[in-house]
Write a structure and sequence with these properties.
Elements (H helix, E strand, L loop, with lengths): L2 H7 L13 H10 L3 H5 L3 H12 L2 E3 L16 H8 L3 E7 L5 E9 L13 E5 L1 E3 L2 E9 L6 E7 L6 E4 L14 E7 L2 E15 L2 E11 L1 H4 L4 E2 L1 H4 L2 E6 L4 E6 L1
Length: 250
């Protein structure tokens, strides 16, 4: 931090919660002085790292941010994150009082996914809890075109929707037309079958042509996973305090 900012910070007394006595003053200077971002931050990664430090949250997988110049951002913390992470998929985890505790970067946002929504760019879905995990009621449509309702565990670590092989026929798939592949699990690689669901919907939010992987029932137990082949169509927040997942359409 330039010396003149460190010295001027002591002249003010408007605190930012969780950031110390001079946090708010420095924050305003960062985003309002022309050219300050270029002088203070070499790139977008440095800018995000600084924002996390000022507001007291953890930012994970920062290496996924591609080398690029710092960006302009203003407004409250969520608005700043939206501006700085435009073009990326990420998860925001909240604690008590809605305070942001963790931001996990996932990947560059996928383009071209058709995501209808009900007249608003933000949709809140109530979840149930299975231990520390969030579960949603989803409707899956396969080649049979018959909707099948089933609970899915929200899992940002799964690259696709993951279902047990016992659901192959009920969704209308022919096993011989599914692609043989391998899936990585906590217990190592397992044989799997890969295909594409016609659609996956949660409440009135729908994503079409969604990759799916089928794994033997005994490997999954009773787990069915809502992975990133659905979630990456959105920027989303997992709200532990209120048991919600908030989907923000790109």
């Amino acid at each position: 931090m330039p010396r003149w900012i460190r010295e001027s910070a002591h002249l003010f007394s408007s605190p930012l919660r969780g950031c110390g006595r001079c946090g708010w003053v420095i924050f305003l200077l960062v985003f309002s002085l022309p050219g300050f971002a270029d002088e203070s931050w070499a790139d977008l990664r440095s800018q995000l790292r600084e924002l996390a430090g000022v507001h007291g949250f953890v930012i994970q997988r920062l290496h996924l941010v591609e080398p690029e110049p710092a960006r302009g951002a203003s407004g409250d913390l969520r608005e700043q994150l939206a501006a700085l992470l435009e073009g990326y998929s990420y998860v925001v985890s909240e604690g008590a009082g809605g305070r942001i505790q963790r931001v996990e970067l996932l990947a560059r946002a996928e383009e071209g996914l058709d995501v209808p929504h009900t007249g608003a760019s933000v949709h809140s879905v109530t979840t149930t809890r299975r231990g520390s995990h969030h579960q949603v009621q989803a409707v899956l449509t396969g080649p049979s075109a018959l909707p099948l309702a089933t609970p899915l565990i929200v899992d940002t670590g799964a690259s696709t929707v993951v279902l047990p092989t016992s659901m192959i026929h009920s969704l209308g798939f022919s096993p011989e037309k599914l692609r043989s592949t391998w899936a990585g699990t906590a217990n190592g690689k397992v044989a799997a079958k890969a295909g594409r669901l016609a659609s996956v919907s949660i409440d009135s939010v729908v994503v079409y042509d969604v990759p799916v992987v089928f794994i033997a029932d005994e490997r999954l137990g009773k787990n069915k996973l809502l992975g990133m082949s659905f979630l990456s169509a959105f920027r989303f927040t997992i709200d532990d305090a209120n048991n919600q997942i908030i989907l923000m359409a790109e």
